Amino acid sequence: MENGKLRIVIEKKAMISKCMLGEACRYDGKSKPLPKEILEKLEEKYELFPFCPEEVALPTPRPPARFVGDKIIDINGVDKTEAFLKGARVALRICKENDIKFFIGKEKSPSCGVRKTSAYVNGCECKCDAPGLTSKILKEEGIELISEWDLTS
């Protein structure tokens, strides 16, 4: 008990895409916050670790980027694969250092998408059934992925 109140210790830890917490870190300098009631339920279940892998090596705002084959290319044709990879590696390091077992990702992101990511295929932009780079690397290391689409109020 702490100050007459029962203190609940949350044992599950989850990294979460920072933009879903209302942080303006997306490529367009905006956020995509989750509804308050969903966020409250997540905070009851997990100790949340907000993180944006793209912020590690890229500015905000930044040109949008998409997968082209196995590379991540921005709309100006600049290869940003290494910058995205750097962010994914930092995310993995944070997960390992903090014993984080879950990642809650922002869909359609080339970094954080869990089920869908943005890509150019045959010269057309599409949303492909594939994870973003950070999600892929975290999953390969045993981190359980949770799509924002699986969160219900």
Proportion of residues in extended strands? 15-25%
Topology as a string of helices (H) and strands (E): EHEEEHEEEHE
Percentage of residues in helical conformation: 10-25%
Q: Radius of gyration from the CA trace?
A: 16 Å
Could you walk me through the main structural features you see in this protein, from its secondary elements to its overall organization?
With 153 residues, the chain is α/β, with parallel strands linked by helices. The chain is 24% helix and 25% strand. The protein has three helices and eight strands, in the order E-H-E-E-E-H-E-E-E-H-E. Strands 2-1-5-8 form a four-stranded parallel beta sheet, with helices on both faces. The chain is globular, with a radius of gyration of 16 Å. The model has no long low-confidence stretch (mean pLDDT 91).
